[in-house]
Amino acid sequence: MSEKPYKSLATDLLGKIRRDHDAAADLLIRADIRLDAQRVAGRDHAREVHVRLRSDAARRGVAGQIAALTEAINRNADIVMDVAHQALDHPIELRAQFIDAQQGLEQAASGARRGTPGPGM
Fold it and tell me: pLDDT, tens digit, for every residue of 66-116?
């Protein structure tokens, strides 16, 4: 009973724990050096984290509304397109009316110069 088979297992586990701890400490030191170098270069990590948190919160808040907005756009697309076509056609119609009125005035002016009575005289 003097032989202890679990002792080598415990020693192996302890060695693995020490190696993992050393690797984690090295990783932490490298990360700290990298962050310090970035701070010296002018990078503001606190501002970046703040902006990221705000944008994530805004994205989560808008996500539920996107489906409703898409549905409303699809539902009203025909009406919007009709209004857009009317808005595009209206100046063309006004220009045509203006040209007709201008031609009528020019004809009336040329008739008055020739001594012909104009309309309604």
Answer: 888 888 888 899 888 888 888 999 999 999 999 999 998 988 888 777 665
- Determine the residue type at 45: H
**Whole-structure pTM value:** 0.40
CA–CA gap between residue 44 and residue 106 (Å, rounded): 72
Are the C-beta atoms of 112 and 118 separated by less than 8 Å? yes
**Integer distance in angstroms from the first to the last C-alpha of the chain?**
139
| Tokens representing residue 67 in the block | 């489906």
Token pair 């503001």 in the structure block, residue: 44
Q: How far apart are CA 14 and CA 21, in angstroms?
A: 10
* DSSP annotation of 114: T
DSSP tally for the chain: helices H, then strands E: 2, 0
